């Protein structure tokens, strides 16, 4: 006979999850350091996978009590078959070199004392733990809400697959008890009365009449009790499920990048790293995220991700064309009353001289009032007129920020500085 055991405990099969959480809390410093090294050494496409964390032996040691020097004490050695109390134990032969321990590696690399693996979720939690969206607010989806089905008690109508047998039988039993209690009580009384009448003189006409009436009444009550159906349609109970609208928060991220001749592949790669970090960060705060790619030189256009990062263009730069297109797309497809709008712009700072002032005006008057946050990253060191105009804006608007990043190693620190929690250290 095959026996099956079903584990219905809330903790499931992962019975050591509590110990694991305490371990992560205790060695948080080493874990943060391992995540930082992983970020520096891996590509953006591998950002979301887990990581092996190495804990040195010295950090795993537990505090213990030890005996001080001097004094007289007795020690019991397990497995002793040669010595008795009072014997003096000689030093082991073989010189000063001990028997334990291994030789050091010629390469200078030793084995870690303890290694464990951070899951994807744990890695991302540590990765973003001290970051936050500035003044985070969530605009709820109002026009087309998502629907969620959940239990809503029982109903008298439904499909056979939703029939709840236990509740139906319980209802049937309650109905039979309710309908038959009075009749059974009367039947019990009549049966006792019939037994008393049979002990009296049955030859008397009055006794015979009463016997006849009692027996007829008993037969009638038994018939009525037997007529109570075992299961009636009104007893059936079906599981009821209803669909209710679930308000969900959603966001759109606009990626604006200069693709003119001055933006080479290395600068595009810096911009790509920043955009992907921002996307991963937003996925931890919103359930639905749209990404809009806008590239520009003298003219702007909305493209897919492949053309956004890899298509090449030549010519000058007019940054305002991308901002105008961004505003048009917001007005047409992403109303600010229903979407959380974020903007990220990457450029080398080169722009037509007379256009930079217009860019600042467009941001201040048209785009920033619609956005939750807008970040500008310059992937070149030299400050030009666009940087000067944006600097004026960053002093006036709280949810606009700008930074420089000229090397791949600077992208993550710049990102953390832009999105650090209020009051937290960079």
Structure report:
- The protein is of the alpha/beta class and 426 residues long.
- It has 3 domains: 16-58 and 113-127, no CATH class; 160-239; 250-418, von Willebrand factor, type A domain (Rossmann fold, 3-Layer(aba) Sandwich).
- The protein is built from 11 helices and 10 strands.
- It has a 6-stranded mixed β-sheet, sandwiched between helices.
- The model is unreliable at 98-111 and 134-144 (pLDDT under 50).
SSE layout:
Layout: H1 17-26, H2 28-41, E1 51-55, E2 114-118, H3 120-127, E3 146-155, H4 165-199, H5 205-226, E4 238-246, E5 250-258, H6 265-282, E6 288-296, E7 300-303, H7 305-310, H8 320-333, E8 340-347, H9 356-367, E9 373-378, H10 385-396, E10 400-404, H11 408-418
Parallel strand pairs: 5-6, 5-8, 8-9, 9-10
Antiparallel strand pairs: 1-2, 3-4, 6-7
Notable features of this structure?
426 residues; Rossmann fold; alpha/beta; two-stranded antiparallel ribbon; six-stranded mixed sheet; single chain
Helix count? 11
Number of β-strand runs: 10
* Secondary-structure-derived class: alpha/beta
Number of domains: 3
For the largest beta-sheet, the strand count, sense and barrel status come to: 6 strands, mixed
Q: In what order do the strands lie side by side in the largest sheet?
A: 7-6-5-8-9-10
CATH architecture of the largest domain: 3-Layer(aba) Sandwich
Report Rg: 40 Å
Low-confidence residue ranges: 98-111, 134-144
Distance between the termini: 64 Å
Oligomer: single chain
User: What is the helix/strand order?
Assistant: HHEEHEHHEEHEEHHEHEHEH
Shape: flat
Q: What is the top-level CATH class of the largest domain?
A: Alpha Beta
Q: How much of the sequence is in beta strands? A: 15-25%
Give me the CATH superfamily of the largest domain: von Willebrand factor, type A domain
Q: Work out the helicity level.
A: 25-40%
Tell me the CATH topology of the largest domain: Rossmann fold
Please state the average pLDDT score: 75
